[in-house]
Amino acid sequence: MANRGDVARLLRSPRARGLRPTVGGRGRMWPGAELPLLVGTTSAPPAPPVPASESEAMALPPFGRGLDLIAGTIAGLGWWAMSWDAKLGIWQRTADQPQVLLDPDPMTTPWHYRMAAGQDLVIYGNHVALYGEMDWRTNRPGWLAPVPPEDVWLLIDASDPAVWTWAVGGATFTPDEVLHVSAGNLSGRLLGRGVLAQYADWLGGAVAAEYHAASYFAGGALPPAVLQSPQVLTDPQAAELKTKWRAMTSTREPVILPIGYVLTPLVSNAEQNQLVQSRTWDADLVAMLLGIPSWKLGLQGPSMTYQNVDQADIVWIQDTVDRWGQPMTAAFSKWLMPRGTVVRWDYAARQRADQKTTAETLKTYTDAGILQIDEARSVIGRPPLAQATGPGTTPAGVPELTPQEVA
User: Fold this and answer.
1) What residues does each domain of the chain span?
2) Residue ranges in 1-126 assigned as alpha helix (H)
3) With a threshold of 0.70, does the pTM exceed it?
């Protein structure tokens, strides 16, 4: 297992230049990496072009903001180790939570670890971390060292496809030394597919539209005017005329044209060119591919009352956030928890309705005898009431009466 020193040396090791594969790009977990690089082959088929890179996609305001919404929600959730209580027939939190959940990465906070892991899954469809030392309580790794997914290679032996290793920073690791969380991978494929890989072609078009819009509004899409000369000009003469024209117009002073010259301003309408509509459509599609309601990104959507927003937020947690959060808890449950223990997100705080609806629901449960009052109070974070444990007994916290007081 790797320790902190090993991880620090690995990430800056000069061996990266020696072991890092340089042909193709099929083994890297970046957009377009659908097949692993085969060890022992002399060449690899060229990787398909990637129209939109990570930086270009992140520069799209709806994409960057949507990614922050998903990963930020995952980071703000709590996760707990749960064990099955056969007597009660329910899953309960373990009294001693594993260290890998309380502090998965000693180099940062649990919030930052979950935030980064959520971004890895959304963008690349893969999250990779090296195992740390064992936790003696669980006999599983007690902490993790996450690595950038774009620096990870999957190497498969061409002679035996069942044999595969990881290459990270120039060093190779066996599967039992690496935690790999994948999302969106097809059957028989180890690498997942993130949003950037699945929608790279379309995102490239959205990026191109944004560049065009910036050029359009900056006046670069069309010349500001056409200047006609009464005589035929050579190229040097035309260039000189344009230079003089720029010099005159830059002062914002009135311009007097010689006889025979004609100035024709070019006026363009962004709405007639459907530029505004196309950018709005692109933003709506970004919200669609991320699975985020358009109104969360400030886009036009249905009129929402408070109750509608509250219910829509619950649906968003179930349909979008859990889509990327579930692979993390499933991987932690399988590889980092002892037998009989699973990891689950605490969605209750984000899926809870408003206070009035919650109170009415809990009252219905307590009146029907489904919940006790203290159980209902625990849902809203209140301590138990000081109630008597039986008829004729003194409530907790109340001193007992002396015989003289009873008489």
Assistant:
1) 4-201, 223-267, 354-388
2) 4-11, 16-19, 54-59, 61-76, 99-102, 110-123
3) no
